[in-house]
Design goal:
By secondary structure, the chain is of the alpha+beta class. Helices cover 65% and strands 12% of the residues. The protein contains five helices and three strands; from the N terminus they run H-H-E-H-H-E-E-H. It has a three-stranded antiparallel sheet. Strand 2 and strand 3 form a beta hairpin. Helix 1 runs antiparallel to helix 4 and helix 2 packs across helix 4.
Length: 112
């Protein structure tokens, strides 16, 4: 099954490594709702500003968020298009497994 605008293996690895961390998933969730500065994000977590910056850098490296300067601050915004592409990949895996389960169900139904 081919996903439109298919992600490369390297992109998929970066995306899911980045999303493997609870804090990074939360940063993506927050920045999907609206952009936020790194300072604003840092106030939400019990960790240093530098640690939050590192989390944002991992997300930016995966393409899940973008950072742009606004004065002395950096504004972070999630990239919903990349998230939709990752979702499409997961949907394709789900369809593969649903098809397999349907085949097993059909085989079991034949035996009854």
């Amino acid at each position: 099954m081919v996903v439109q605008d298919e992600l490369s293996d390297a992109e998929v690895d970066r995306i899911f490594r980045a999303l493997a961390d609870t804090t990074r998933r939360d940063i993506v969730r927050r920045t999907l709702a609206g952009e936020a500065t790194v300072s604003e994000l840092a106030t939400a977590y019990d960790m240093s500003f530098a640690a939050v910056q590192k989390h944002v850098a991992v997300l930016a490296g995966a393409g899940l968020v973008t950072k742009r300067p606004r004065g002395r601050e950096r504004v972070v915004r999630a990239d919903p298009d990349l998230i939709l592409r990752a979702q499409a990949l997961l949907d394709s895996y789900e369809q593969i497994w649903r098809t397999r389960i349907d085949r097993v169900d059909a085989l079991l139904a034949e035996d009854t």
